[in-house]
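JOB MANIFEST
job_type = single_chain_structure
chain_count = 1
residues = 87
[input]
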Amino acid sequence: MAGNSTLESICEGVPMIGMPCSADQMMNARSVSNVWKVELQLEHGAERNEIPKTIRKLMVEKQGEDIKDRTLKLIEKATLCFKEAGS
């Protein structure tokens, strides 16, 4: 996941499903998944059953609701950063 895609998803309030492949994607995905907690990782790569299982977690399970709540909080923080004199 590229930095711009991450920022765009956060600013639009879109929870993410990640599958980092190389370079800085690993570090970015770790931050988004484990620190900010607004992304689910595909635990077993792009295996056939893994993608729908992860989408289901995000859309209908408690874990997905928690991610959506944290995403909304990040939108507020991102909005403050983009205002005049913001970071």
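[summary]
Residues 42 and 53 are 9 Å apart (CA to CA).
The chain has a mean pLDDT of 85.
exit_status = 0
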